[in-house]
Amino acid sequence: MAHPIGTGASEESGPSLSAREHGQGPSTPARKGTQGGGPLTTREVELMNAYWRACNYLAVGMIYLQDNPLLHRPLVPADVKHRLLGHWGASPALSFVWVHLNRLIVEQNLDVIFVAGPGHGAPGVLGPAYLEGTYSEVYPDKSPDAEGMRKFFKQFSFPGHIGSHVTPETPGSIHEGGELGYSLSHAYGMAFDNPDLIVACVVGDGEAETGPLATAWHSNKFLNPARDGAVLPILNLNGYKIANPTILARISPEELESLFVGYGYKPYFVEGSDPAQMHQKMAETLERAVEEIRTLQKTARQTDSPTRPRWPMIILRSPKGWTGPKELDGHKLEGTWRSHQVPFADVRGNPAHLKALEDWMRSYRPEELFDAEGRLNPEIRSLAPKGPRRMSANPHANGGLLRKTLKLPDFRDYAVKVGPRGTTLHENTKPLGEFLRDIMRDNPTNFRVFGPDETASNRLQAIYQVSKKTWMANLTPDDADGGELARDGRVMEMLSEHTLLGWLEGYLLTGRHGLFHTYEAFAHVIDSMFNQHAKWLDISKNHVSWRAPVASENILLSSTVWRQDHNGFSHQDPGFIDLVTNKSGTVTRIYLPPDANTLLVVADQCLRSTDCVNVVVADKQKHLQFTSIDEAIAHCAKGIGIWKRASTDQDAEPDVIMASCGDVATQEALAAASILRARAPNLKLRFVNIVDLFKLQSSADHPHGSTQREIESLFPPGKPIIFSFHGYSSLIHKLAYRFIDHEDLHVHGYREKGNINTPFELAILNETSRFHLVIDVIDRVAGMQAKAGHLKEEMKNAILDNLAYAHEHGKDRPEITDWTWPD
Ligand SMILES: Cc1ncc(C[n+]2csc(CCOP(=O)(O)OP(=O)(O)O)c2C)c(N)n1
């Protein structure tokens, strides 16, 4: 039998409620029998505090204990883990917010998901997930009893088990919060097109100092109250990061308030440390915030043209490591940076610390919370929502369960008509824009396109025919003239790659579909976000069986290096794909379609796929077209293949293989092949094109990889390969290292040479031009040097001549710009 439940709250009082609140909304009258003037009855405060004590007890247990979970006997050193890991400091505020959200979910049948910005405070999320039963449902060995609790404690941050963040193994989490900064953009992405959902997003005050988080506050200018759900940001001002104070906690209250008013929010302050008072304040403030959200939504849903509301947010100023030991060994702990991680260590070796731990854990009075078998007191348990209303079991947080297959028109309907191969020009991304337009039209509530103000620049502007750019900020009369802005637009544009990708990730992880496009060089802005998302997918897909597959993250890199001759050196960087190859092959795909039709085939494939990051590199400018749609389908199905028309080795052993990967790279390689065909007619040249970059890797390393035999039948051993590559040449060596003798592999790619040039000059500077490729063939093919001396000389002269022409005329020679495949 558990003992009766008391508040366990101290008498210490914090600053007054909502001292600086801006609330214009209806205030909540105090109910009969309330304590401290808030909306909760004395009994409600007792019970909610008991629930929170249970959460905090579990949090401490997770960090420290491997045995004796219910303290049925005094702690001994062997009960304590050898390595103490985890973050206590963030945990109590996270579970405090959770307990309060639970109250409103139950009372108002709300649909709420929880985002923990300081995801390192996982004990503050795992505890509630265990108490409301979800954890035991998905991991039956972590049963709701003493033995289950022992395992639950031991597994936390323990080798071979779960990590110390809200990782994919955590039910209810779709934001790990390992790398700080993305909570708010993720939260907004989750809310788009989810009109009934409230996303409660706890933001750490340290996290709030990061660039991605700072700009994500502006997401409120893109949330449509009529069509989307709501985000309730809860900034936890616990005052410290790892070892430093936080900026937002050390500016004046007026400055802090002005900041968030300036961002367009209505901030409510909940400040203090006394649990009883804080429960009342939080209950009242949360109730008010939710009521305002509902009122704003209701008003907006009654009009045709909703305006941007001033959404509520909560600033929760509470001590770091709240309810932990006040001090130890002469140092203050609660309310300081010292309680960020494990407030005190050496528990196995220091009897005083062991005693301090036991006193701390007993201060939560576990005997009142759990019975002798470790089962949660039923009265406390009854506070939690039921079934899918539990935030730990909300289906939005396992978005694959809600994912509907995208309605895709037939991509063949958008194909470019190709006459004689290699003679007609098209903007490769334009037909893709038309394909995306109709996908947008046919999937009006679960597909969006995200880009940093480059939709038109990347030639995808056809999308605007069916949907404009979302814009909830002010409109001016001039916007009507080509601004393409609309309150109900579905094209997401903001000059923050971080915010855009965060939105897309939140959108995908809650079961929807989308595409992010950006300039190739500036994809590096989101390097780290890509890393984190790929890691999330890797664990979810390969290690968490209860997570349903989500739609893949599709990243289109356009405005690529070879056509950034006008923008110069800063805009030339094809290295994002290098980064992608570092991540698990189970979740990464890279495609470099050479023309418009292959791009359409690849796009269709990407939009159908799940649990991957698909990176597609395709330039937006006019390029020669090489494949009919049927040829494109066959070529992309193989991912790598011989182009017969450009080859001269039919039924014979080749002297050389000319390989190409990338649109501009393929055009240069074909131009080189045409020179060789005309000038070295006896040369047996095989032309190989690669669309699916991972075909160059071993099938042992990547699911799209090739076998040794497949590679050797395309690239016979001992034959030189002259490889015209879109990116940095080392990437090809890295991918193909198992297969190809590197003595034979000669890759021409970007070498960090270039500035304001002509396109062809850029190729010359990086030695990727057709003339350089021909020279390399002459140098590598046995016996050719002696015979092709004159041709080599001509190529050298052509290089000098084209450079001189570019510098004199500011453009490339017409023979270069107008070059087409000769037959
Ligand atoms: C981008 C990034 N930089 C640094 C870290 C290392 N780190 C982990 S926790 C932390 C402090 C976080 O402070 P805050 O967001 O206020 O969370 P709190 O623990 O105080 O609740 C830092 C700097 C990180 N995880 N991510």
TrEMBL record:
Its EC number is 4.1.2.-. Its cofactor is thiamine diphosphate. Signal peptide: none annotated. It comes from the Bacteria. PROSITE patterns: PHOSPHOKETOLASE_1, PHOSPHOKETOLASE_2. Keywords: Lyase, Thiamine pyrophosphate. The keyword ATP-binding does not apply. InterPro entries: Phosphoketolase, THDP-binding, Transketo_C/PFOR_II, Xul5P/Fru6P_PKetolase, Xul5P/Fru6P_PKetolase_C, Xul5P/Fru6P_PKetolase_CS, Xul5P/Fru6P_PKetolase_N, Xul5P/Fru6P_PKetolase_ThDP_BS. Residues 620-821 form the Xylulose 5-phosphate/Fructose 6-phosphate phosphoketolase C-terminal domain. Residues 41-401 form the Xylulose 5-phosphate/Fructose 6-phosphate phosphoketolase N-terminal domain. Residues 1-40 are annotated as: Disordered. Belongs to the XFP family. This is Probable phosphoketolase. It comes from Corallococcus praedator.
